[in-house]
Amino acid sequence: MAIAIRDVREHELDSVLALNNAAGPTILILDSNRIRWFFDNADYFRVAEVEGHIAGFLMAMREGSDYDSPNYRWFCERYAAFAYIDRIVIAKPYRGLGLGRIFYADATSFSEVRVPVLSCEVFLEPRDDVSVLFHGTYGFNEVGQQIMPGLGKRVSLLAKDLPSFDFVRSTYLDGPTGQLPNQPWLAQRKRQGSAAPRRAAGGL
């Protein structure tokens, strides 16, 4: 079974929206305007394609966005530079195949050359032990909790240090060129809502 992780395409937004809204109670419902906002503004928005079908997606934001998520804002208030995983969804027929770990490995690879911290949250009410265990075994630690405004549900705020970023920063971002090498796997997706490409967080 061939699996491709790639940037989402505009014509796939309706399929991604349907997948999101069928995911269950731990994934907040979106509408067409909101999914379009993510397409225009997310720093990382990739899908898993399996035999021509969208099997899942992951969206992540860096610091400095006007995203109004209370969990994202929590990290903005405490971290100068980070990547925040807003949501990951795997379609039911493709669960149990390891796509979650593939996505997180890809998101980590994307993040560790740009920022020192990868962050996210998991619901504690109702407690999702599968998600808690998954994140714990992937190197995340709880750095706080909060009750989500409007939902009244407690979440655990998680962060994972990305030690490779120190090497990337000293060698490239603070080096002679001040930027990453020009390689396809290092490319930043072109965000429709931004006139200029996002730079890595050098000089912290």
UniProtKB/TrEMBL annotation:
<dbReference type="InterPro" id="IPR016181">
    <property type="entry name" value="Acyl_CoA_acyltransferase"/>
</dbReference>
<dbReference type="Pfam" id="PF00583">
    <property type="entry name" value="Acetyltransf_1"/>
</dbReference>
<feature type="region of interest" description="Disordered">
    <location>
        <begin position="179"/>
        <end position="204"/>
    </location>
</feature>
<dbReference type="GO" id="GO:0016747">
    <property type="term" value="F:acyltransferase activity, transferring groups other than amino-acyl groups"/>
</dbReference>
<feature type="domain" description="N-acetyltransferase">
    <location>
        <begin position="3"/>
        <end position="163"/>
    </location>
</feature>
<protein>
    <recommendedName>
        <fullName>N-acetyltransferase domain-containing protein</fullName>
    </recommendedName>
</protein>
<dbReference type="InterPro" id="IPR000182">
    <property type="entry name" value="GNAT_dom"/>
</dbReference>
